[in-house]
Design brief:
By secondary structure, this protein is mainly alpha-helical. The protein has 23 helices and 7 strands. It is globular.
């Protein structure tokens, strides 16, 4: 009995960490400051790494956010001496696969963190060398991530003449031998460079035309130096902008971006990013562009649902658009965007015509939601249960306050008195990490709760939430993690991660 109880406690510890690693980025939230978030994360990373190192490494195969993924990689590399040979081999594969999925700027930031921690062992150098070797174009990185690449080359003694383009089907021409070293460490030595981006960077100091051959973020600085008008600059640089850069600058061209050179195709945007964009628009803009925005959100939701589209049967959703869904100054409207993206994703997952949504404000038009008012979750849960769903999904920060605690009591009575056969599956997904409680806030002990950061992860998080009911031990959780690791590594080693 003691062993079983210990397994349950271990599973709860691991789920605490997973929820934190999914939701928290160490930034200020609506009810907690940044330093509180960082202190709470520091403790959980240290605790789980020391006590459950295998599971700590396995979290790289889960849908944890990029901030915590980079943190896990850093901690594993800094404490390699604590791992066995088998653990180091598995960790190496997981780290390589996760680094391939991280944005390059985060990986270069990781290089700097490892340098500051004075980590430079052979294992670390090999992992980072392989990551650099797989970069599509080191010349591009030298221009866009100059400081990060210099740190990697100098501190970790990594070669800069590795053939680039290993990660793409149409690789860029690698820089000539010695060019990257001269560009990074001896600027001004060469009169010209063979690599077009390196040479464009050199010419951009005195030639306006070369500015438009550079990546957008680098070109911005040169355009300001040359005194180029912002509107003219954005119009000419548009072909070199990424999808996200287009989205960020689209509103500069006009209220609706109509006919703008930076117009981006919203139908190919990720679901949560698209929801954030829609919420950033004024009510008038959302009404005017209703067909475009709704179509794009539904298209993104269908892509996120994948093969599960239409398979969840009758679904009810309780979605939080109370004032706390406004988030914080650094995570503006993030909780509301997750709820909005979740609405369209749950609509895609439900059987046709078998989906109902209840917003805490009582609004019925999802495109016009805004963070306002209290959080009457209990009343909305009652409304949703009257719909007789097969699945009830609650997306909320869990601060039920109108009246306080009603949602938990409703769900307790529902589970113990009215639905003992568990005809309805209830899951609570929380987009906000509670730093004081070292977990996401729960509605009731009988309701499985999981943290969520991106609406796209909803199907996988509903699956992992089953372990949060307190009836599943560490063995079952480890078996689930093993399946996720196998799938994660298989995708990476077949080239899918790149």
């Amino acid at each position: 009995m003691t062993e079983t109880y210990a397994d349950l406690i271990a599973a709860e510890d691991v789920l605490l960490f997973v929820n934190a690693a999914v939701t928290s980025t160490g930034q200020r939230e609506f009810r907690s400051q940044a330093y509180q978030q960082r202190l709470s994360l520091d403790f959980l990373h240290e605790y789980v790494r020391v006590n459950y190192r295998t599971v700590y490494a396995a979290s790289l195969a889960l849908d944890i956010n990029d901030h915590n993924a980079a943190r896990v990689v850093e901690q594993l590399l800094r404490t390699a001496g604590e791992a066995s040979g088998e653990q180091r081999r598995t960790e190496g594969r997981l780290i390589a696969a996760r680094l391939a999925r991280l944005p390059p700027q985060r990986v270069y930031r990781l290089f700097r963190a490892l340098r500051a921690a004075k980590v430079g062992n052979r294992r670390t150098r090999a992992i980072l060398r392989d990551w650099l070797a797989a970069r599509p174009d080191l010349g591009h990185d030298a221009v866009k991530y100059r400081a990060g690449l210099k740190t990697a080359a100098r501190h970790f003694h990594l070669p800069l003449t590795t053939a680039a383009g290993a990660g793409t089907s149409t690789p860029a021409a690698p820089p000539a031998a010695g060019e990257l070293g001269d560009f990074l460490f001896k600027p001004g030595v060469r009169p010209r460079y063979e690599h077009p981006l390196l040479d464009a960077y050199r010419r951009a100091h005195y030639e306006q035309g070369a500015v438009y051959e550079l990546p957008f973020t680098v070109a911005e600085g040169f355009a300001a130096k040359h005194g180029v008008a912002r509107e003219a600059f954005v119009e000419r640089i548009a072909p070199r902008m990424t999808r996200l850069e287009r989205l960020r600058t689209q509103r500069e061209a006009g209220a609706d971006g109509a006919g703008a050179a930076v117009r981006t195709d919203l139908s190919v945007m990720p679901l949560t990013r698209l929801a954030l964009y829609a919420l950033s628009l004024t009510t008038e803009e959302r009404v005017r562009r209703r067909a475009e925005l709704t179509g794009a959100l539904r298209s993104a939701a269908r892509r996120a649902a994948g093969p599960y589209a239409g398979t969840w049967g009758r679904v009810a959703a309780v979605l939080d658009d109370s004032y706390s869904a406004s988030g914080s100054g650094v995570k503006r409207r993030r909780p509301l965007a997750v709820a909005l993206g979740g609405h369209f994703l749950l609509e895609a997952l439900a059987a046709p015509g078998a989906y109902g949504a209840w917003w805490t404000s009582g609004r019925t038009d999802p495109l016009l939601v805004r963070p306002y008012g209290p959080t009457p979750l209990g009343m909305r849960v009652i409304d949703a249960l009257e719909y007789a769903p097969e699945r009830l999904v609650v997306v909320s920060d869990g601060w039920d306050n109108a009246p306080p605690g009603l949602a938990g009591e409703v769900l307790r009575v529902w589970r113990t008195r009215l639905d003992r056969e568990r005809r309805t599956t209830v899951v609570h997904l929380n987009p906000v990490y509670d730093a004081d409680g070292f977990d996401v806030r729960r509605l009731a002990a009988s309701v499985p709760t999981a943290g969520i950061r991106d609406a796209e992860d909803l199907p996988a998080l509903v699956e992992i939430a089953q372990f949060a009911e307190g009836r599943t031990g560490l063995a079952d959780l480890q078996a689930y993690l093993d399946r996720r690791i196998e799938s994660f590594l298989r995708t990476y080693e077949r080239g899918g991660a790149t």
